[in-house]
Specification:
Layout (H helix, E strand, L loop, with lengths): L2 H21 L8 H11 L6 H10 L6 H22 L9 E2 L2 E2 L1 H4 L2 H21 L6 H15 L4 H10 L7 H11 L1 H13 L6 H28 L2 H4 L5 H4 L5 H5 L1 H20 L6 H11 L4
Antiparallel strand pairs: 1-2
Helix pairs in contact: 2-6, 3-4, 3-10, 3-16, 4-6, 4-10, 7-10, 8-9, 10-11, 11-15, 15-16
Length: 297
């Protein structure tokens, strides 16, 4: 990772952290415990991959940063809520997230449930509160797009498939279908919503950009599966080896580590090709793509 890109990543991470800190309710605002827990799970952790993708996508077509950061924050809040619920005993039953106790361990299960609900609501509040485009109809469509990405035809639906697949042997297409929804839908939203904040792109350009986002969403999950199998708990900031312990189907369980790594590289290549077809400068998205696929590889 070159120094200029490293500085860009650091600055964007600080930028989204500051924005989230200012938009989350203060700890001394009633109900204090709920607001404290919301801040606990959102602030001070994570690589902020989805906001980085939003910032990079916004650079494609001159999107106003003040608009892009709203989208980036909304997507990150949805992501944070999903992690809180994912860690609950009724889901993956995990005790560690981003190097610290999970929300239901630090607080309790009812608080964790309400934290997730509240973060999701706050995400849509931001999407409705600020002007993201000069076209109100387009903004309504963007809100709808985020709702679909988070719901039963997106992230929540993918999680349902994941829970139903424990102990089963899935085919590669079945696993891909699951992760297009569970992981990929929100990553695609991070890219596409930011692009909608800028100058109009053609239908062909939007299709190529969406294909890029689909590829990078799958690549992200492949890398996650490899890291879960190979990295330590300290390096991950969450419990390593959890997928194998719970007998979950993963890219590693189906393909093995070596082939999974190769698949990540193939998906990166496909993402590159999709960006090349856009016909505009895509340097920043290319850099973020490398950042995602090569992390700890």
């Amino acid at each position: 990772m070159n120094v200029n890109f490293q500085n860009w990543v650091k600055n964007r991470q600080l930028q989204i952290e500051s924005y989230l800190e200012n938009r989350l309710p203060a700890e001394n605002c009633a109900p204090e415990r709920l607001h404290e827990a919301m801040r606990y799970v959102v602030l001070g952790g994570g690589k902020r991959i989805r906001p980085l993708l939003s910032f990079a996508a916004g650079e494609l077509n001159g999107a106003d940063e003040a608009r892009v950061i709203v989208v980036a924050a909304a997507v990150e809040l949805i992501h944070a809520y999903s992690l809180v619920h994912d860690d609950l005993p009724c889901m993956d039953d995990d005790t560690l997230r981003r190097g610290k106790p999970t929300c239901h361990i630090q607080y309790d299960e009812p608080t964790a449930l309400l934290v997730g609900d509240s973060l999701q609501s706050l995400a849509f509040q931001l999407m409705a509160e600020f002007y993201l485009t000069d076209n109100p109809k387009k903004q309504l469509e963007m809100i709808k797009q985020l709702a679909q990405a988070a719901g039963s035809r997106g992230m929540a639906g993918g999680q349902a498939i994941d829970l139903a697949s424990v102990g089963k042997i899935l085919t590669l297409p079945e696993l891909e279908f699951m992760h297009i929804h569970k992981t990929g839908a929100l990553i695609r939203a991070a890219v596409m919503l930011a692009a909608h904040c800028g100058d109009e792109l053609s239908d062909d350009q939007l299709a190529h950009l969406d294909h890029f986002a689909k590829c990078i969403g799958l690549a992200f999950q492949v890398v996650d599966d490899v890291l879960d199998a190979e990295a330590t708990t300290a390096a991950l900031g969450k419990t390593a080896g959890k997928d194998a312990e719970q007998n979950k189907p993963t890219y590693v369980s189906i393909l093995g580590v070596k082939q999974a790594r190769e698949l990540a590289k193939e998906l990166k290549h496909d993402a590159y090709e999709a960006l090349d077809r856009l016909g505009i400068a895509t340097n920043r998205l290319l850099q973020v793509t490398d950042f995602i696929v090569q992390r700890e590889f």
